[in-house]
Amino acid sequence: MTYCVGLKLNAGLVLLSDTRTNAGLDNIACYRKMFFFENPAERVIAIMTAGSLSVTQTTLARLDEAIENELADETTSILKAPTMLQVATIIGDTLSRTRREIADQCRDLRQQASASMIVAGQRAGGDMRMFLIYPEGNFIEATEDTPFLQIGEHKYGKPILDRVVTPATSLADAQKAVLLSMDSTLRSNLSVGMPLDLAVIEKDACAVSARRRILEGDSDFMDMSAAWSAALRDSFVKVSI
Amino acid sequence: MTYCVGLKLNAGLVLLSDTRTNAGLDNIACYRKMFFFENPAERVIAIMTAGSLSVTQTTLARLDEAIENELADETTSILKAPTMLQVATIIGDTLSRTRREIADQCRDLRQQASASMIVAGQRAGGDMRMFLIYPEGNFIEATEDTPFLQIGEHKYGKPILDRVVTPATSLADAQKAVLLSMDSTLRSNLSVGMPLDLAVIEKDACAVSARRRILEGDSDFMDMSAAWSAALRDSFVKVSI
Prior knowledge:
The structure is a homodimer. Chain A is α+β, with helices and mostly antiparallel strands. The first copy, chain A, has one domain: Aminohydrolase, N-terminal nucleophile (Ntn) domain (Glutamine Phosphoribosylpyrophosphate, subunit 1, domain 1, 4-Layer Sandwich). Chain A has five helices and twelve strands. Chain A has a five-stranded antiparallel beta sheet with strand order 10-1-2-11-12, with helices on one face. In chain A, a hairpin with a 5-residue loop joins strand 8 (129-133) and strand 9 (139-141). Chain A binds chain B through residues 153, 155-156, 158-160, 162-164, 173, 175-177, 179-180, 184, 187-189, 220-221, 224, 227-229, 231-236, 238-241, and chain B through 153, 155-156, 158-160, 162-164, 173, 175-177, 179-180, 184, 187-189, 220-221, 224, 227-229, 231-236, 238-241.
């Protein structure tokens, strides 16, 4: 499985993904699940992926091919699409078509082949937007009421987001929130694993403002995780019933 | 859905279940999911249920019928079975048979009919034991390494249990831990709902030591929930990355 989470805040977008990919429990590998398509200062698009690696890789390769195609226009290239809505539509259509083709190929094996994506970004002159794209190609969008979207193993890390994230959350607090959400998930589910990819896209920058790969044993992350565990245990002692 | 959790500690057993039952989102009802079979001072057996209500109710009715049958013997009545292992086997066999029959009846509708159970208890002279019984009738048992078992919507409430519960946890702390685990689940998943049933079975009592129904709006539970939220937010502010 996978855990990816994206926050759309007044101050910008904060994205975090793990890298564990597995086929069964005895075939575990590390693959990046966060990708950027940038034309700095004009547009930035981030994609995070969950699900069948063959579906997500092929979808991304097709999005790349469409961008590089000399005949690409605003209906096929996500770097030429006039709005983030149109970007989400192109990605949704590409994902849906790829998923159907691979599911057809896998039919005899009775294997599932599905995938979902979080697409976040901004065009100069447009608003920041963030979408969760379903395997069928349709999508939902993050709003003021629900400023975060998750794909993959989303349940373990949801309570902390429900409690602390609002659109007014600062980018610093937002990074802490997604890392704590990931920490709970890593502790409770083996199918989500280090290293992690963390990215921040500040509002109106139309470029990736910061990105960081957090490796297994990263001392900052381990310190945060230990401090959070200690704080939770302290809180547990203090709360009475 | 459902959330039920049981802890097997050195000091005793602590059990908590919700009561929400739904068929789709527009048909929501309240049903007890925690049941006791007691012969005080000789044996106590607690069963918590998750899954299709028709499967769990019929399974429990058949266990009752077997107890009341004049011809009942130690292979059919859970109040006569000589060990908790044999109790779990009778319950597993009854659940498995009931589930198969109802699944056959539902086949034309392409509806799932499945259920799982947590069975916990003790016989005088035996050890406390706690089992998770799968829909197929097989089961696993709580151990020193993993002193808790969960059924239903288990993911939201697992991180807190992973962090604070060990076999040495006191019965008071254990009740707090399961209530906080439930609190996280209630906040993040609509299919789990109040009221709650909480029970404690002290070691070697061979009887239910305490049971309590926690109603919607219970002031102790609301205070604990609010204090926990506040403590989490305080901890969040203190932890740095």
